[in-house]
Amino acid sequence: MSAHRNDAEFRRQVEDFLYLEASYLDRPDLDRWIELYTDDGTYWMPAVEDQEDPHNHLSLIYDDRVMMEIRRRNFVHPRAASKDYAVRCSHLIGNVRITEFDEATGNCTVTSNFHCAYWYWEEQTLFAGTYRHELVMTDEGLRIRHKRVDLINADAVHGAIIIYL
């Protein structure tokens, strides 16, 4: 993989894809959000800075597609607390950088910074950190093979994280 791709059109496509993902999380439309992932896609939120392995260390979240589907079903279940107390959230993404790019496949690694504020049960919570998306080019366009969410305070004590960031 080359270090980066300076093609403005591809960069815009990647940014638009990240913004689309954020819009699905903001609504929330978890059905469409999950469709952005490959069948082998994973979502990882490490519990400590610079954690390299989600399998042999504690993580705040480490989900594959099956677990994402289970969380989605739980979130919309008629008895879910989210039905009584609506979740509202807003994602802000910036400093998007294509850090790796494979000319042959169109696959790339993208890092970006984010802020996510959400309102739930009359309380606002703010998260901030860095995203690392491993994106693959498919016949349907870009898809997420792996998303890593590094919170700036990952090692802090957190209440329940009820949404994907």
Overview of this structure, please?
With 165 residues, this protein is α+β, with helices and mostly antiparallel strands. It has one domain: Nuclear Transport Factor 2, Chain: A. Helix content is 25%, strand content 42%. It has 4 helices and 6 strands, in the order ααββααββββ. Keywords: Aromatic hydrocarbons catabolism, Dioxygenase, Oxidoreductase. This is Aromatic-ring-hydroxylating dioxygenase subunit beta. One of its GO terms (molecular function) is dioxygenase activity. It is an enzyme of class 1 (oxidoreductase).
Give a concise summary.
The protein is α+β, with helices and mostly antiparallel strands and 165 residues long.
Keywords summarizing the entry:
six-stranded mixed β-sheet; 6 strands; 25% helix; alpha+beta; 4 helices; Nuclear Transport Factor 2, Chain: A; 165 residues
CATH topology heading: Nuclear Transport Factor 2, Chain: A
The radius of gyration is 16 Å
SSE pattern: HHEEHHEEEE
Q: What is the β-strand count?
A: 6
- Structural class comes to alpha+beta
User: What's the total helix number?
Assistant: 4
Strand order of the largest sheet: 2-1-6-5-4-3
Instruction: Report the uncertain regions.
Output: none
- CATH top level? Alpha Beta
What is the number of domains? 1
User: Fraction of residues in helices?
Assistant: 10-25%
Strand coverage percent = 35-45%
Shape by Cα distribution: globular
- Terminal CA distance: 28 Å
